[in-house]
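Retro notes - structure team

What went well: the batch runner handled both jobs without manual restarts.
What didn't: labels got mixed up in the shared folder, which is why I'm recording both outputs here explicitly, each with its sequence directly above its tokens.

Job 1
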Amino acid sequence: MHAASSRNKPSQVETGLARLKSDMLVIQTLAILDSRPILMDELERAVQGLSSLVRRCFGPCGEETLLFAPPDPPLVTADGHALLSAWRRGLKENRVGAAQQEPMQMYILHAVDGLFTQLGDGASQFVLLLYGAVKHATDAIHHDQSQQQLQCRQWSAGEWRQLAVAFGDLKRECRVLLGDFQSWQPNLQVVTPIEFVRSDKGLQTPSDEFRVAMANILRSGLFGALGEQVVTFLTRLVVEWIFVSPLVVDDRVDASILFHRVQQFVKAAPRAITFAVASSVYDSQILPLDEFILRKSILSAQSPSILGAHNGAATTSPPLRFLCVTCPLSLTFGSNHVTIRASDSYEAIIQAHDTMRAFMRKYVRDLRHKHDVSMLVSTDAIDDSVAEMCTQHGIACVQFAEHDEVMDLCTTVNTYPLASLFDAIKPTQHIGVCHGGVSRVRLQQSVYLRFHGLQRNEGLGQKGEEELARVAVPQLILNAPTKGVYKQYYKATTKALRILQSWCEPSSKSSQRSNQFELYSCRGGGATELALARQLQKRKPQDGVVHNTSSSVAQLARRIFADAIMEVVVILRGNMGAMASSDDSDDFNNQRRRNHTVLQDMTTLALHDDTQRHIGGNEPLQPLRGYVLNNDHWTDTVAGRISIPELVFADPKDYGLLHPWRRMQTIVIVVLEILEQLFRVDCIVRTSTRLRGDADAAEEFIDEIE
């Protein structure tokens, strides 16, 4: 009976964990590591491996790494998320069972992907901050345990649980602290008003000041991934791309309108961005709104001359009318499948097939002569007999077009595709008009169709949210000499879109109001991080936030996280100093000097909390300072004038080094969330190992954690 209870012991522990946490990845991690007595050592090893991948590429002077991930082309990148994504693919594909052998890394990489989806940036900082917190936590615990060994005692499960609760309390406190920053650092947040200029036609375009603000946000997130000139060009290209189509709104543009538009570009980016082989990226172009490249060509059985006068060569060519369908052009399968009941006689079967062919013949004839359609674009197959009918009537056919591309084409001309051959064709809703004709272009060693002079149909008359939902995303052609270089430009472009999306996302406070006409940023270069670390060191645990934890454990969690934040800033300064003229070479011997320098710089920050302001009166607020590169120094060489960057400790706002406020807020909260989860899991693992074979004690422990 006792053996049976012992065998049921792991399932009871896993049941208690399932009640405690709903995250399946944490549960899988516990199930795999249940036989290992110390989980934090496993976590430290896993995070250390990931941090070593991104440590040298963190910051605007990151080192590049050559990636080989067949069958993809080789990629030279300094983007942290690209490195971590390649490592994740290696765990899942190249090494058999590696994903099961490295559950901690897979869990953290899932969190990295979630952060990239939400923020577009901060993957390297997230991993480095998590590693710093884990390393300082394990060092502090090992030091405490070495002191307690003299008293013949180790950390109990209750103390591990208290540290997990302390990280949870600190997470809630940081959420309040970053939401109520006016009480301790009024100039922590940079506010940018949303400014648009209205034209005589009612169209609204961003003002020059707002364009500069957007460019600064994007440039700050892209520095280090590519060269400075390429980053400047791509940021200008992305801002121009988003607002090629002006906003048609009656009211003032707010954050929700901007967020919706950028969100549509993020969704359409994989289809809207096209690779073209060229020597320079600076020749990349944004297609006008009346042009569209369909990544398909006409049927091979049809001659290119079927386009005839619609190929765009003649200036007096008649407009081309096209119809998009999302169903097969056949009555024998798909949504148009028709079942005809007939006798078993051969004549009846032949008559039934003749009836279906007669229907398709009449349908094609009506398309050509009644609706003047010259092109059919289908997302499904086109029957050979139907293709022959279309060729006889001079209708060009495109089959197996991507559904999303067909929807984008319809959005460009403001129409809808036909879902069934039995639906009534309404010219104002289903037929698009192309005044410039269709030409055949060769991109990526394939022949595509390029529509010229597309006419936007105004017959649907959408208003309000329906109009905003159909944002016409113009296509972007990115030039690059190779596919590998193109992937870098594509990665940088999509990253810029996600950064802009996180910046424009309305805050939780604004959701209670009707509109939000301001966007919020924070200073880069470690300025915001240093201010937060200084505040955590100055403040004591709040009585209204701390639950069931001793003051010493709560203070230990604050010290661990503050030290981790400082270490991330030290890494940033070290990487920047390696390229600056005012710093020594980056080696291990300079680590202590850099730590001391960052500590001194942090102590110079003047945080104006409520107590200091009441005592000192209306003191002027000192600007927050961080580490930035000053490129104002030039020198003459044989090759010409070159810029010599200088590492300075100044206000990053003066240099345009700003990040979305949500970036810092999300990274801090997610790191503390993971620390809370994993320390709680470590507590359960240690207790389950200690109580293995004692069913009654395990049940009491499960009831306790519930």
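Job 2
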Amino acid sequence: MIGKHVELEGRYKKEYIDRFFLEELRKHNYMNNNVILLSTSRHYFNYRHTTNLLIAYKYLKYFGDTMDKNILLMIPFDQACDCRNIREGQIFREYELFPSSHNKETKIENINLYENLNIDYKNNNVRDEQIRRVLRHRYDAFTPKKNRLYNNGNNEKNLFLYMTGHGGVNFSLKNSRI
């Protein structure tokens, strides 16, 4: 799929690439696509990483024709339920812009990204050992089916891994305090 994306990038304008890429994904059986969305940052001040992850989740779920059982969402810290979050149980794309009567002039729709959310791994369940188990498809007997990559008996699966957090070229910080 990456080769197809690069091929399309050379032929078409940037704004059409994502649409063509999603159409190409739809040609394949979407039941064979698994997605792991992983944030590597803990602590409340890394709110932006969780926001990026939830935006990708909503995009894949509603525009990418990916079913929720094919998506594993791993969030190591729950900013929505932190006592410093002034809007309890809610996460917004723009941290300082909440939906209210004052924002109706601004044309920016700032929706709550935390609603209709199925978090598979959170807090202390997001650790290196658990991530390796999920990637290798090797679970212990106590792992519920909803926390496993979907398998319909077909061994040929596509895996899309989206990681957000601190890092750079050739390294990634896991659960950093930055």
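One thing worth noting from job 2: The chain has one domain: 30-172.
We'll revisit the folder naming next retro.
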